[in-house]
Write a structure and sequence with these properties.
2 domains, 97 residues, transmembrane, 2 helices, elongated, lipid droplet
């Protein structure tokens, strides 16, 4: 007797079960995103307040390495600019001769 009733109500029960599953999943996902956001904001607050949170050493090291690489690239660009300027002068003087 249960099978015919289930077959009759399945067009209503299956979509409603899917909707309930999606709603519950959405609430869990939004809650997880909220917890992640609070954790990230707490870490940033502690980092700015110089309380040295977990992982701050790696962040400082990466920042220092990036600054070092940037200085190196800047120096190379200046050297190359001087080289190009010098070559342009040589070419200009060669054309005058």
């Amino acid at each position: 007797m249960a099978t015919p009733v289930m077959v009759l109500f399945s067009p209503v029960l299956v979509p409603s079960a899917i909707v309930i599953f999606l709603v519950i999943t959405g609430f869990l996902f939004s809650g997880g995103c909220g917890v992640a956001a609070i954790t990230a904001l707490s870490w940033i607050y502690n980092y700015v307040q110089v309380k040295h949170p977990l992982g701050a050493d790696k962040l400082d090291y990466a920042r220092d390495m990036l600054a070092s690489m940037t200085r190196g690239v800047t120096e190379k660009a200046k050297e190359y600019g001087q080289y190009v300027k010098h070559k342009a002068r040589e070419v200009a003087q060669g054309e005058r001769s």
